[in-house]
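Good morning C.,

I know you're traveling, so I'll keep this short. The sequence:
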Amino acid sequence: MPSYISPEGHQKIVGEYTWLMRTERPRICAEVTYAASLGDRSDNAEYRYGKQRLREIDRRLGYLGKRLDGIEVVDSSAFTGDTVRFGATVTFEDEEGATQTWTILGEDEVDTERRHISYVSPLGRALLAKNTGDTVEFDTPKGRREVTILSVAYTHG
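The tokens, ready to paste straight into the viewer:
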């Protein structure tokens, strides 16, 4: 089963991959080559640091490459209506009457400061395929919660 991601999230991953591959890795390789030319590698901090940084970059490139192979881009800008789908911005009211607004995106796009949750999170799963006016229940570490969907919107353009 593929993982879903927005076009913006996909662009961010591709951008990081491209930057690491075309800019950062070649720069670090050049630094390691220069440090190696200075002689004794066992006592050469720049060489050791550079090799460590290359390993980190290669690990990150491997991770990003696997993510890119397994994701499906979903452009929700054409979606309309009051049914919650991937990319929806959902406003709901909880049991205490507090109103919250969250956007449902991919696992790589979770950002609580920007109010982005994953479609596979407990709340994201509970909201998907529901409509304005529906009350949904979901489990959290603090127990079962209930929210009522007030509105569903999609960003267009």
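Safe travels,
E.
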